[in-house]
Amino acid sequence: xxxxxxxxxxxxxxxxxxxxxxxxxxxxxxxxxxxxxxxxxxxxxxxxxxxxxxxxxxxxxxxxxxxxxxxxxxxxxxxxxxxxxxxxxxxxxxxxxxxxxxxxxxxxxxxxxxxxxxxxxxxxxxxxxxxxxxxxxxxxxxxxxx
Length: 146
Description:
Helices cover 81% and strands 0% of the residues. The chain contains 6 helices and no strands. The longest helix has 32 residues. It is elongated, with a radius of gyration of 20 Å.
């Protein structure tokens, strides 16, 4: 039919995959954490207190920058989706914000903690429960949105 009319018919663009976006964003965050940890350990060696203070200082900056990019990207990816997917992304967004805010509050109040203590705290409660909720919301969004 397009040959007869001389026009092209294009299918509507498929929205960006939430799962693909999340895997890329998550990988970037992990690279940032590893980089910060490496820089601090290279600078201060085995001095757990100094490494911890360095990590907190740089991670606070990194989390705030990542949060701004995350908000923009989540909004952009959500905009093109169908209603069930937008609802799932909204739930993911709410839970993720809660988790990120808790982490930032912790780091803001533990600027001079040892890295070992920071690691124990961020892997314990209430952070472990927040991570589970975030994972569940992310998994649901991936199932619904693709």
